[in-house]
Design brief:
- This protein is α+β, with helices and mostly antiparallel strands.
- The chain has one domain: Trna Endonuclease, Chain: A, domain 1.
- 30% of the residues lie in helices and 42% in strands.
- It contains 2 helices and 5 strands.
- The radius of gyration is 14 Å and the shape is globular.
- The protein starts with a helix and ends with a strand.
- 26% of the residues are buried.
């Protein structure tokens, strides 16, 4: 499995996990300019933007650590555009799903309200 395939695997795993926990996936891979919102979900009358980070290991840090302040700002801008485009009037939350997948383990961590605008 290469890095691209790992990313696709991670997003599919995140979708399945979220759905099993009552999240409705309303959009996958929404693009605004050069930024992509991996998953846009709804649960409990909230819009939830989910960034999925998948790595083979945590040798260089946990996957969620790749969601830097700069990346957060990009996601917030893209989410604002999404909200305006689809005229959504819901409270919005930003989550991160952090996944490590290799021959020895598959570990998934869902960080609720990982950052705020």
């Amino acid at each position: 499995m290469n890095q691209h395939e790992l990313g696709i695997f991670g997003e599919q795993l995140a979708k399945k996990s979220l759905q099993e926990n009552g999240y409705e996936i309303v959009y996958s891979n929404y693009r605004f300019r050069h930024v992509e919102l991996d998953l846009v979900c709804k649960k409990d009358s909230k819009l939830i933007v989910v960034e999925v980070k998948t790595r083979f290991s945590n040798a260089i840090g946990e996957p969620w650590q790749a969601v830097t302040k700069s990346k957060q700002r990009q996601l917030i801008r893209a989410a604002n555009f999404y909200i305006e485009q689809f005229d959504i009037d819901l409270d919005t939350r930003f989550d991160v799903v952090s996944i490590i997948h290799n021959d020895k383990e598959t570990k998934i961590e869902h960080i609720i309200d990982a950052f705020t605008p």
